[in-house]
Design brief:
The chain is mostly beta strands. It is built from three helices and seven strands, in the order ββββααβαββ. A hairpin with a 2-residue loop joins β3 and β4 (26-36).
Length: 127
């Protein structure tokens, strides 16, 4: 999967990275990650989008403990549809994630929109 150069924005207390995910030239998903700005000074200016965001976060001494994910279906709005090259009636999977450090302080809020006609999700539970 290929990641496009993200659109970055900073708004007071948080920074946002947004990028389109592609495979074989097909736009499959749109990921938007909001990060608390005080935890990641300079990240939006220096992050190499071709590298792992999670590795960058770990290099800053921030450890992941767990995450809460939710998955639902939705339709893209006009902007999202344009970025993904689809119609606004194309079914999408919407994944929302909040990741936490060991002290239960949020590390990230992620919103991922994936094309329902191109993606399958499988959940495996172990005891």
């Amino acid at each position: 999967m290929t990641v496009s150069q993200p659109r970055t924005t900073a708004s007071g207390s948080r920074g946002t990275l947004e990028h389109v995910l592609t495979t074989d030239g097909i736009r499959l998903g749109l990921e938007t990650t909001r990060l608390p700005a005080h935890r990641y000074p300079g990240l939006l200016e220096t992050f190499d989008y071709r590298q792992s965001l999670y590795a960058e976060i770990a290099s800053r001494g921030i450890a992941f403990a767990d995450a809460v994910d939710s998955i639902e279906t939705t339709l893209p709005d006009a902007r999202e549809a344009a970025l993904l090259g689809v119609d606004t009636r194309t079914p999408m999977f919407l994944l929302k994630r909040v990741s936490y450090d060991p002290g239960r302080v949020p590390i990230e809020h992620r919103r991922s929109l994936y094309r329902g006609d191109r993606m399958t999700f499988t959940a495996i539970q172990t005891p």
